[in-house]
Amino acid sequence: MAALDETGVARQMWTLYEPVHAVTYFHPRARAAFEAVGLRGYWRGYFAGRAAPLGAVDAPAVTAAFFSFAPAMVARALPSVWRLATPEEALRARLTGGVQALAEFTYELPESHLVEAADLLAEAAGRVDVAGRVLGAVNAALPRGEYPLARLWQAAATLREHRGDGHVAALVTTGLEPVEVVAWRCRVDQSREFHQPARGWTDEQWTTAEQRLVEKGWLTAELSPTPYATETFRVVEEATDRAAAGPWRALGAERTARLRELLEPIATRCRTIIPSQAPIGLPAQRSASAALPR
């Protein structure tokens, strides 16, 4: 895989494994699995399930690792969720819900297809460089699933958190605060009505963030993105892709291409339940055979 192609491949593969992981946030079976261990309400399941590989951590660590959430929103969930379910119970629930959701989307596919996809994705996940990537590291350290769909979901979780860690590291170099990043993106290609409540920022925090973005040169006085901001964020996205390219370099061009073929029908089915405005950044669905912008 040529060096100039690595970032494009990393982005293509993200659009395929991200939907596999994201069923845990949007499928009713995933919600039911969290509720079965006492985690009622969407955000209890979200924070407990995603934070569980870290152990029974408190809000500050999760606020830092997840990056885009208002501290007050995280504090409403943590550490109180650990009185409802242990991290071990939350881990079992998220894997159970993920597997049950994937089973619904993949029952028409041959078993051999799922086994090959799971094994290749798990091999890619086993090649992640975890240095400096806390969420990627703790997910990579979890036991490999015994069954194909468990291996597939867990590998997708590891790869998406590994990529997310790299993205956060790149964002930190911009000097923007989390609320500023979210507010800026909502002036570019996302919706404030959806993202502000989903990340827990108040109107005052949001307005103040936009004012700071004007002062920093990321927004014009009319609150439109500036050329400087657009170019800087392009650099951030390229850095994110470079930091996520290692597993595909290790897997090799031919096997990565084969995995892409195997994941495409699975990802297409999984994306049917992901809201178009979901704050995970997936582009509009189309063929993954060409590089896709985030």
From TrEMBL:
InterPro entries: HTH_67. Pfam families: HTH_67 (PF21863). This is SalK.
